[in-house]
Structure formats: structure tokens, C-alpha cells
Amino acid sequence: MEECTLTLKDLLNGVDVKFSPDQDADRKIASITRDSRQVSEGAVFFCIKGQKFDGHDHAEKALEAGAAAVVVQRDLGLKRQIITEDMHRAYSTACANFFGNPADKLKLIGVTGTNGKTTVTYLVKQILTSAGVKTGLIGTIQNEIGDTVIPAKHTTPDPFQLHAMLARMHEAGCEYVVMEVSSHALDQKRAEGLRFISAAFTNLTQDHLDYHGTMEAYYQAKKKLFSMCDTAVINVDDKYGQRLNGEAECKTLTYACETSDADYSAHNIKFTEKGSSFAFLAGSTLKRVNFAQPGLFSVSNAMAAGVLCLAAGIDLEAVIEGLNRCTGVSGRFEILPANTDYTIIRDYAHSPDGLEKVLGTIRSFAAGRIVTLFGCAGNRDRTKRPMMAEAVARLSDFCIITSDNPRDEDPEQIIKDALPGIKQHRTPYKAIVDRYEAIRWALENTQPGDVLVLAGKGHEDYQVLDYGTIYFDEREIVLSLLGIKEDGEEF
Sheet harboring 334-335: ordered strands across? Predict the structure, then answer.
């Protein structure tokens, strides 16, 4: 990017701020940051208060390091301070201004909900690409600029990273950008100032209550997206979707798989182990879709993606052709090429509802036992642990409970928290704390005709332990333990 020539006044355009008397509003700025360690000469430091650290504690040191200004939410009595009442909004708006407001030059499509965000965004990108439109993607697994892949650290990036990415996408010739918009991002105003031409609500089930506290607060965080879009695309099979349909402040389009009382609905749904087929009903027009992923939740994701693209201006024929061309998503109901006499599926399901949907789908076609390996995350909502375990025990024939990302919690205690859920049923189970050893045991003991489900990690290629993050790619681990190369040949 070229050297920034913005002034302080330009940087904070659109934000309600109060400059200190000694501050020159026309001073050129060199950079902006919320990280005090990155402050350099001519930078603007935003003193954001987080869950663990408060940037205000570092304001004075930032000025000593050469900051042109510090933006604060309370009067610190410092020189070159700029006061604002809404720090998160100020930072997001400044980041957009710093990069020349790239979002205004792009057609944005957003997706929020507890489950399905990643899959829906990938499907939207595949539909748009199939229609000949260059598209950017921002999400959990990775960011994409056309065919270029960029690693992702967060579902919705920090505002600086977000607008930097949008600027790169615009410069690369993208017309559309589809992005996951998490409840955390909405609550922290990381997407402040963005305008989406269409945005989808997939569903809302218990998750992230360690952050939001209540389901109502979680819903209200998600709902914010629909004050930022032109058209809301809403799943009315979901009870919160039905509520949102009556509360959204913008135009709404509804979709459903379980009722015909929607603007767009799926009919004559059929499943196999390898995919789904259904009729996409749009008004009086019926189109047949053969989709690469099985399960009612997969059909719902396909409907969401299709209606999002219709709302964004893509014609129905192109949408249907795109859905028929769609391939699977890494770590989402992914059947591993294991060459075994049983099936191995890895999936990202890590909530009670997510597990229930995945295992319920497998139950519809499994000829043998369902063996489910899963764990519960550390430093996250403890109340959902027995709920997850209950869903697994109810829908599986054998459970292997192990670690997910225990972080700095005792992994044995996490398992103890979940066990009451398993014990509500008579399903046999085995507890193995070490996830690698749990996978090894599962591969050695799964029987011909079984379906082995590796739940919770999905696309992730790491595990977060108390001493740090280690490389942990379950696809590679499984194939290595079975002595199989990625091309399907044996070692």
C-alpha cells in the first residue's frame, strides 16, 4: 500500500470525537494500531479495553514511543489525546478510512448463525465463481481472493485486518465478497460501517454463552447484522429465525426445508452417503438440485447460499447450476479417503445441535454402528458439555470421549463435566484423554460396516493445550496411522 497521506481529521471522519487543545487535526498520520507494542513514530493508538487488557493503561507509553495521538474513551489528562464515547466504533471507522473505505467498492454478502456459516460462505463463493464472478471470501477456515488462499486467525478479523483484506480484494478485481460475521464480531463492532447487499441467518442454538451470558444476548448480537444489510435471508425452520423474520428492519426473504410456508423451500429431499437431491422451489418455478453433501442441514445450507445469491442479483439458472457444481467443504461432513471397510467422517460439529444434526444424518444411512469420537472445548461454555455428550450417546452406538482444545483447563475435569450426559443412556463408551491415542484406539477397534465420526476439530490443523498450540491435523493423522498417502496409495 502507498504511504498514507491521511490527516487525523480524515482518519476519524464519521466518528464523534473531541480533540485536545494541543492536538493538530491536520497532522499526517503514519499508521494506526490497537496494540501498544506496534506503536511507532506518527502512529495513532486506540486505547481499547478488552477482557484481559485495557489499552488506556498503555496510552502514556504510546505517546513516549512517538504516537501522533491516542484515542481514549475517558479523559486521561494527556497531551495529544482524542476522546470518543464509542471506542470500538471509532477504531472500526478509522480502519475503513485508513484503507480508503474499500467495502464501499464491493458487493458484500454476510452469513451469521450458530451452525452453517462456513459451509454457506463457501457455497456462495462457488456459486458466484461458477457464474463467472470474481469473489473474495473471509471466514473461519481461510480467506480467499479468487483462487489465492490466505490463512485466517479469526472467523471475522480485527477491523484493521478486515479492511486491509477488503482493500486487497478490491485491488485484485473482486466484485463480491462473502464473509462469516460472528456474534463476537458484531458485539465488538468489528464490522461497524459495513453494508451488506444480502445477509443470512442460518440458526441459533446454545453456544458461546461463556461470552454472551444468555441466549437472548446471543440472539441480539446476531440480530445486529440485519440492521446492516439490504435484504435478510432467514431460515424459518429455526424458531429464532421465525422471530427475526418479524423483527428485521430490512426486506426479508425466507427459506425452509421443513415447511412450504417460506419464499423459497426444498421439496422431495433424498439422501445418500455421498450427497442429497432436492427440488428448489422458487415461487412457481421448480428446479432439481443434486448436492454434494448429505443431510437435512446440508440442504438447508444449500438453500441459504442459493437465496443469498438470488438476493445479490444472480439469476436462478446460474444459482442452480452453481449448486449442482458445488463440492464439499474441508472438515464439514468430510469422508476421508481411508480405503477401510468402514467409513471415516470428520466434522466441525462442536455444539449439541451441531452434533445432533450430523449424527442424525449418519443414522439415516448407516448400515453398521456409529462410533463417535468427540471432546468439549476448554475455557468455553461448561453448561453445554453434558448436553453435547447426551446428544452423542443418544445417536451413537459407541462413544469415545477425549480432548478437543482443552486450553488451560484440566482435560480430565472437562471429560468429567461431560460424562453425566453420556450416562443418561446405556451407550458404551471409552474415555481417552490424549486425542491422538483416542484416534489410534478408534481405528484399531472400529468394525467393518461401521461409521467412525471424528467430531469437533473439522478443518482445524492444531490443538490448543495448556503449554501452547501444537500441529494436529486429523486427516493427516488418520491417513498416517492407516499407512495411506494422500493419493490413496499405501506407504
Answer: 334-335, 343-347, 451-455, 370-376, 398-403, 429-431
The answer to whether the CB of 445 falls within 8 A of the CB of 415 is no
Cα distances (Å, whole numbers) of residue 120 to 50, 103, 205, 353, 373: 30, 21, 17, 17, 25
For residues 178 and 111, the answer to whether their CB atoms sit within 8 Å is yes
**Rounded CA gap, 75 and 17, in Å?**
12
| Domain residue ranges in the chain | 8-93, 102-325, 334-481
Class of domain 8-93 (CATH, top level) = alpha beta
Condensed to tens digits (0 to 9), the pLDDT of residues 38-68 reads 999 999 999 998 878 899 999 999 999 999 9
Find where cell 476439530 sits: 457
List beta partners, residue 468: 465
pLDDT digits (tens, 9 = 90+) for 297-351: 999 999 999 999 999 999 999 999 999 999 878 888 888 988 899 999 999 999 9
At 131, the amino acid letter reads A
Q: Domain 334-481 sits in which CATH superfamily?
A: Mur ligase, C-terminal domain (3.90.190.20)
Cβ neighbourhood burial of 119 (10 Å; 0-12, 13-18, 19+) = buried
Nearest to 295 by CA among 330, 332, 263: 332
| Distance separating alpha carbons of residues 451 and 15, to the nearest angstrom | 55
